[in-house]
Amino acid sequence: MYLHSRSTRQFLSTLCAVSVLLFSVAASSAPPLKTPWMCEQTFPVSQSHHTGSHLGKGAQAWDFALPVGTPIVAPAAGTVRMLRQDSTVFGCDPKFAYDANYIIVDFGDGTEALFLHLQANSSTLSVGDKVEVGDTLGKIGMSGYTCGPHLHFQVQETCDSWWCTSVPATFAEHGDPGAGEELTSANCTQPVESPLDQSPMDDLPLDDSNAASAVATKTPTSKANAADKTTTPTGSADNAAAAIGGNTDLQPAPK
Ligand SMILES: [Zn+2]
């Protein structure tokens, strides 16, 4: 009986260890991510990891140079855990970090995607809503700590705040893109819509240091957009270079 009991304990112990291992793997691995904007649109990385304003909890973030009014879409299925879209306050200073509008899509595995700098009242979603990959989440605007229009995107460990510790993530078609790299979205599960929804926010004055880059980043480079006569395509190298200079961001120090 003793041996049987001992082997049973060993078996249970091993089973427990395997379970813990499996759980920890599941909790730390984000699902394969699709590009977080609409099918066939192309935008560059304007800031990558461990640099500029991407330090501390935001070290694994990317900034993408999306113009104001550009729809952002779900990179994977999930549930809206938090949403803020009442802010019209922004500025090129860290003191504006807490004025960002945001949406968080919880993947249900301990990780979630945080999107920063939404346009005020641009989302039709509510907390608790389920989203499928490709569903529209809102639009890019100027809110929070931002010197020029962009999307701050990070996968983070779910916590009790909107600003949680970012974790490494990759995109299914692009891996872990670096600064200047252009990503063409293959998030094509939803019908293609007009890439730019003109809004009064487009005409907001920016300070001199960011005006040029803000204008440059409003010119999509994909072939799909080139066919749209309402936009003005530019060389991709110019666009990427301008985007790198037009960065901004978030560096809050939540208590
Ligand atoms: Zn950022």
What is the element layout, followed by pairings?
Layout: H1 2-28, E1 42-47, E2 62-64, E3 71-73, E4 78-84, E5 90-91, E6 102-106, E7 111-116, E8 130-131, E9 136-139, E10 144-145, E11 151-157, E12 182-184, H2 208-216, H3 223-226, H4 236-245
Parallel strand pairs: 5-10
Antiparallel strand pairs: 1-2, 1-12, 2-11, 3-9, 4-6, 4-8, 6-7, 7-11
Helix pairs in contact: 2-4
This protein binds zinc ion (ZN).
- CATH third-tier fold name: Glucose Permease (Domain IIA)
Label the overall shape. Answer: globular
What is the gyration radius calculated from CA atoms?
20 Å
Ends apart, CA distance between termini:
55 Å
How much helical structure, as a percent, in the residues?
A: 10-25%
The number of helices is 4
**CATH architectural designation:** Distorted Sandwich
CATH structural class? Mainly Beta
Strand order of the largest sheet: 8-4-6-7-11-2-1-12
User: Mean pLDDT, nearest integer?
Assistant: 77
Largest sheet: 8 strands, antiparallel
DSSP strand tally: 12
Spans with pLDDT under 50 lasting ≥5 residues? 14-28, 197-247
Number of discrete domains: 1
Provide the structure class. alpha+beta
* Portion in beta strands: 15-25%
Order of helices and strands: HEEEEEEEEEEEEHHH
Protein name: M23ase beta-sheet core domain-containing protein
GO molecular function: metalloendopeptidase activity
InterPro entries: Cell_wall_metabolism_enzyme, Dup_hybrid_motif, M23ase_b-sheet_dom
Keywords: Signal
